[in-house]
Amino acid sequence: xxxxxxxxxxxxxxxxxxxxxxxxxxxxxxxxxxxxxxxxxxxxxxxxxxxxxxxxxxxxxxxxxxxxxxxxxxxxxxxxxxxxxxxxxxxxxxxxxxxxxxxxxxxxxxxxxxxxxxxxxxxxxxxxxxxxxxxxxxxxxxxxxxxxxxxxxxxxxxxxxxxxxxxxxxxxxxxxxxxx
Length: 180
Fold this sequence. Notes:
A two-stranded antiparallel sheet has the order 1-2. Helix 4 (59-70) packs across helix 5 (92-104). A hairpin with a 5-residue loop joins strand 1 and strand 2. It has eight helices and two strands. The radius of gyration is 23 Å and the shape is flat. The chain is mainly α. 48% of the residues lie in helices and 6% in strands.
């Protein structure tokens, strides 16, 4: 035991944790992938999961995460002149994480369906490769999407009779139903 008391310049200093690439460090994730995925699928997604696991640990991405946690999104209902705006205000860190998630296919992977029935597990594995603090930012957004009281809502609506893109053969009609 050191007889000298600890101070701001001497004594015991706790070493900061070393966060490693979660693709390699998360043993439960690796075991789940080995159990549920054929080896050919595992070997095809391993390079992407490894690369992404390193990318999210870069100083740049960790700074985005810290900014997103410090400056939480909020709804600006009115502007300075009393005009209703209903604008979602997000920090640059939040927007950068969103852009990265889009570019990395965090949602798209499952819908592209390139790995058929294994696509959802690939999507899950990629999100599990995020460090915990980045995961918390995404979980907070997810919590609002599934909330039953203070939910964010999203959707797609048809605004033309004959829908565009892949719904061009669909027409929306409402018959008149007389009231009695």
